[in-house]
């Protein structure tokens, strides 16, 4: 009979009866590494893949591993292959590459559920290589290139859009600043013109007051008569320079009579003397020919 077939030989010193007892199986309790041969599997989207892997296991119960299954390593290898095909059939090609860790964990869990009766524990399973058909590989490369071109086009369009927005925003700000500058310039010009007009009016009013005060003083009428007479004489010097038609009063040479009229209408001539020379000539002409 086999050596203690009912319970097997334990650790330490064991005694066997010659001829009657013999060692039938020897199991190693170390971690065992098994290469899973390459096999084909079909994914959920009907793509045929060639895959191989590495299986790491350990014998926990030598008795079950010896008498529970004929060849434990072969049995676990076949179980790993069938489980891998089953798990791949649940995933599409894209998910196979993205979820390799999840796929490995599912294979380990499925193997352990079946290998408990064999006294074997699967520690981990790793997929080594995944080979796809050449045409599928070319289409995958084209898809990757198209995706990269798409991202590049999107990024370029976003850059162009941002540049256009920045340019438009810059033009908008420039127009706003230019309009504000033009507005401020107009306001400043209007304020300057208003101040100039006000200053001229104040100067004229002050000149009229001074002239009026001067006329009320002693000999003021004589001074006004002298000034009007001087302007009256100088006005004749500019006659016929701008036009050939000349209108003269009937008493052109009677300067004393003209001065007498000025003295009679002193307030009017106060305003006339405060005005400009051209305006003075016009007012004098209208007054003398009324």
From TrEMBL:
Keywords assigned: Coiled coil, Mitochondrion
The UniProt record lists the keyword Protein biosynthesis: no
Any one Gene Ontology BP term: mitochondrion organization
InterPro entries with a match to the protein in the record: Band7/mec-2_domain, Band_7, Band_7/SPFH_dom_sf, STML2-like_C, Stomatin_HflK_fam
UniProt cross-references to SMART domains, sorted A to Z: PHB (SM00244)
Segments forming domain Band: 4-144
Entry GO terms, CC: mitochondrial inner membrane
Matches recorded under SUPFAM superfamilies: Band 7/SPFH domain
Membrane topology annotation: Lipid-anchor
Chief location of this protein within or outside the cell: mitochondrion
Residues forming coiled coils: 184-218
Gene3D superfamilies reported for this sequence: Band 7 domain
CDD domains per UniProt: SPFH_paraslipin
Localisation per UniProt entry: Mitochondrion inner membrane
Protein purpose: Mitochondrial protein that probably regulates the biogenesis and the activity of mitochondria. Stimulates cardiolipin biosynthesis, binds cardiolipin-enriched membranes where it recruits and stabilizes some proteins including prohibitin and may therefore act in the organization of functional microdomains in mitochondrial membranes. Through regulation of the mitochondrial function may play a role into several biological processes including cell migration, cell proliferation, T-cell activation, calcium homeostasis and cellular response to stress.
PANTHER family per UniProt: STOMATIN-LIKE PROTEIN 2, MITOCHONDRIAL
Family designation: Belongs to the band 7/mec-2 family.
Protein name (record): Stomatin-like protein 2, mitochondrial
Organism of this sequence: Monopterus albus
């Amino acid at each position: 009979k086999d050596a203690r077939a009912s319970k097997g030989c334990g650790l330490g010193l064991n005694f066997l009866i010659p001829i009657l007892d013999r060692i039938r199986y020897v199991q190693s309790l170390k971690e065992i590494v098994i290469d899973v041969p390459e096999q084909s599997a079909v994914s959920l989207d009907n793509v045929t893949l060639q895959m191989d892997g590495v299986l790491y296991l350990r014998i926990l119960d030598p008795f079950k591993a010896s008498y529970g299954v004929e060849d434990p390593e072969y049995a676990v290898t076949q179980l790993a292959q069938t489980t891998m095909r089953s798990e791949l059939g649940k995933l599409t090609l894209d998910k196979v590459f993205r979820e390799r860790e999840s796929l490995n964990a599912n294979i380990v869990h499925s193997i352990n559920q079946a290998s408990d009766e064999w006294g074997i524990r699967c520690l981990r399973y790793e997929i080594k290589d995944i080979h796809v058909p050449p045409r599928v590989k070319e289409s995958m490369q084209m898809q990757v290139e198209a995706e990269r071109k798409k991202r590049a086009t999107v990024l370029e369009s976003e850059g162009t859009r941002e540049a256009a927005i920045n340019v438009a925003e810059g033009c908008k700000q420039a127009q706003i600043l230019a309009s504000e500058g033009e507005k401020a310039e107009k306001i400043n010009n209007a304020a300057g013109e208003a101040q100039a007009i006000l200053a001229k009016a104040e100067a004229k009013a002050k000149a009229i007051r001074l002239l009026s005060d001067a006329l009320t003083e002693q000999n003021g009428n004589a001074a006004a008569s002298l000034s009007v007479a001087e302007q009256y004489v100088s006005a004749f010097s500019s006659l016929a320079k701008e036009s050939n038609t000349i209108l003269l009063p009937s008493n052109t040479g009677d300067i004393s009579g003209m001065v007498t009229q000025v003295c009679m209408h002193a307030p009017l001539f106060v305003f006339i003397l405060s005005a400009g020379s051209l305006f003075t000539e016009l007012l004098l002409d209208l007054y003398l020919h009324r």
